[in-house]
């Protein structure tokens, strides 16, 4: 009898599944920020390309799995590599993420997928796409926004900065310019490349530091088929989680950053909506330096759902005095809120890795790369491998207890050769004359 009453009491507390789903969707709607964005560009060479896509879905057909992608591709020596990467990189990244993952697992898988997506599957496709003798390349700054989580992958010298509520400006990318990056210079020379300036008649050296052969100023890029293996497409990846206060991303090509510091760019557009902000950043860069390069800027605002200060326009019927009083009060309120939020920590760093060593980037997971068919897959290009064909990313290295030659991930022979070349274990066949 008592057990029966207990069962009846338990049933009275049950909530229908439909009600639970409804509650979860309402909660998710409250928690999901508003994403607003704008862009501006001035072209000199016609080699800058960009992407703004806000309707991507982790699960096809599921609107609650929506995320956004913003990217800049700054081409050089032509625009073919930039165009191809813009049209294909997202598909390669998504193809490197296992299916059936929940949102948190999906976010954790993103950094590794961004490394795999930049590698040989994309590069080999690009080789087929380029015309014979074509040697164009491109930088990439690739930003994925999923609610409050921002994941950035970058190769080259385009940049993404975060201006969090409270005024703190942080850089979410690393510039791969040989002139400025000592670690990359050391890696390139250790891998068989030569770093130096352009030498003219009389032995006079001019211009920025470049990598030879090829004469590229960057140590990482996509494309550039005429340079050695030491110019790698392995991205620096950083993932952060914003507080519920949100923040602003400024993503731009080097036409902006050669003219403005990160702080100057953030300050120049402070208080403006995203579209006007992007125009203002470009305008300020041109005012400072002139149009010496393609200049492209994307501004992305991640706005709390209850933030009426950023989302509500002024009432139409207001005189100028009332408008000024309204905005002064709003600004005072926003400043007070920002000071409170800045005291509790605005940004949580979830992941950061910039190594050019694939063994470090792909991890020590012994089950990594196993396909649903039971075969193994190359962790980079995802080609199926028979058990006897896979080569561990750790093979041939000095093994530790956590890094053994029979542990995955595994690579195909082509990707293994590319990895060895990147890490200086074999020398480029291209010689400097």
From TrEMBL:
Residues 29-302 form the PPM-type phosphatase domain. It comes from the Eukaryota. This is protein-serine/threonine phosphatase. Keywords: Hydrolase, Magnesium, Manganese, Metal-binding, Protein phosphatase. Its EC number is 3.1.3.16. Pfam families: PP2C. PROSITE patterns: PPM_2 (PS51746). GO terms for molecular function: metal ion binding; protein serine/threonine phosphatase activity. It comes from Tetracentron sinense. InterPro entries: PP2C, PPM-type-like_dom_sf, PPM-type_phosphatase-like_dom. The keyword Magnesium applies. Its cofactor is Mg(2+); Mn(2+). It catalyses: O-phospho-L-threonyl-[protein] + H2O = L-threonyl-[protein] + phosphate; O-phospho-L-seryl-[protein] + H2O = L-seryl-[protein] + phosphate. Belongs to the PP2C family. PANTHER family: PROTEIN PHOSPHATASE.
């Amino acid at each position: 009898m008592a057990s029966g009453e207990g069962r009846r009491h338990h049933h009275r507390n049950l909530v229908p599944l439909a009600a639970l789903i409804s509650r979860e969707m309402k909660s998710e709607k409250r928690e999901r920020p508003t994403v607003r964005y704008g862009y501006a560009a001035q072209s000199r060479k016609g080699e800058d390309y960009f992407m703004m896509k806000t309707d991507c879905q982790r699960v096809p057909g599921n609107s609650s799995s929506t995320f956004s992608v913003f990217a800049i591709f700054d081409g050089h020596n032509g625009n073919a590599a930039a165009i191809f990467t813009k049209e294909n990189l997202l598909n390669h990244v998504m193809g490197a993420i296992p299916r059936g993952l929940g949102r948190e697992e999906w976010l954790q898988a993103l950094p590794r997928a961004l490394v795999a997506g930049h590698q040989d599957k994309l590069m080999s496709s690009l080789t087929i796409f380029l015309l014979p003798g074509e040697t164009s390349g491109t930088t990439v700054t690739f930003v994925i926004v999923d609610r409050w989580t921002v994941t950035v992958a970058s190769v080259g010298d385009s940049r993404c900065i975060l201006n969090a509520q409270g005024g703190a400006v942080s850089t979410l990318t690393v510039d791969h310019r040989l002139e400025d990056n000592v670690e990359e210079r050391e890696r390139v020379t250790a891998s068989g490349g030569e770093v130096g300036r352009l030498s003219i008649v009389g032995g006079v050296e001019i211009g920025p530091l470049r990598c030879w052969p090829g004469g590229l100023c960057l140590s990482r890029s996509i494309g550039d088929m005429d340079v050695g293996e030491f110019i790698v497409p392995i991205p620096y990846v950083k993932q952060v989680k914003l507080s519920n206060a949100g923040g602003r991303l400024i993503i731009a090509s080097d036409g902006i950053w050669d003219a403005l510091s990160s702080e100057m760019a953030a300050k120049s557009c402070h208080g403006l909506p995203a579209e006007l902000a992007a125009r203002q950043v470009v305008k300020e860069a041109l005012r400072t330096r002139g149009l010496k390069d393609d200049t492209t800027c994307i501004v992305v605002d991640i706005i709390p759902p209850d933030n009426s200060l950023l989302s509500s326009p002024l009432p139409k019927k207001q005189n100028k005095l009332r408008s000024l009083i309204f905005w002064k009060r709003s600004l005072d309120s926003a400043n007070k809120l920002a000071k409170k939020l800045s005291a509790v920590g605005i940004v949580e760093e979830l992941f950061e890795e910039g190594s050019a060593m694939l063994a470090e980037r792909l991890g020590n997971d012994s089950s990594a790369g196993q396909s649903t068919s039971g075969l193994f897959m190359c962790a980079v290009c995802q080609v199926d491998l028979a058990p006897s064909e896979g080569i561990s990313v750790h093979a041939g290295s000095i093994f530790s207890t956590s890094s053994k030659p029979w542990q995955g991930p595994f690579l195909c022979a082509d990707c293994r050769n590319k990895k060895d070349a990147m890490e200086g274990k074999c020398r480029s066949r291209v010689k400097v004359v």
